[in-house]
């Protein structure tokens, strides 16, 4: 197997810098587990902010029921209609991601944030991250990676349309699985590019040598 060139101490330092620079703004905090140090999972406003006409109680309860069935430790922000929790990723390059599920009138958005971010003032790495995003998103049928150019946050987003229906547990589970598989498939590539040890083209190519199916198909 080709060596990634990642030094573990560099990875730990990168995660620590991410935590120090973004925790004050309510972004993610480095750690492993549903609540690494007793703090509530963070909430960031993505996907257009609050729903203009509130959010669906029926969809909320459907999502809540599924999360409860998985025995997840989550927080629910009632004012915003958002579930938030830390998701452990066993056997993945990332030990966890932060997941926010925002409920709307006729659907919901799942967004999982990487535990490390791109040094957003480093133009070269930001260009590589943008190229990586385009390469990873090409051909994806369920969700997409996002890059926040203001602070370097990298996340995966999936929208579920629930117009005139209440989502089944299978629908919710498939959407959550797509988010998990995205980081299983590309976690190492993301870290390689963020730390500047591999060009985006090579990192994505290695990740896709053994592609994971993150589509809607069974």
Helix-residue proportion = 25-40%
In CATH, what is the class? Alpha Beta
* Corresponding CATH architecture: 2-Layer Sandwich
Please tally the helical runs, counting DSSP H or I stretches of 4 or more residues. Answer: 5
- List unreliable stretches of 5+ residues: 1-40, 45-52, 213-218
Which class best fits the helix and strand makeup? alpha+beta
Fraction of residues in β-strands? 15-25%
Give the termini separation: 30 Å
Count of distinct strands: 6
Mean pLDDT: 76
Assembly classification: single chain
The topology string of helices and strands comes to HHEEEEHEEHH
Query: Going across the major beta sheet, what is the strand order?
Result: 1-2-3-4-6-5
Question: What is the CATH topology classification name?
Answer: Yope Regulator, Chain: A
Largest sheet: 6 strands, antiparallel
Shape field: elongated
How many domains make up the 3D coordinates?
Answer: 1
Radius of gyration: 17 Å
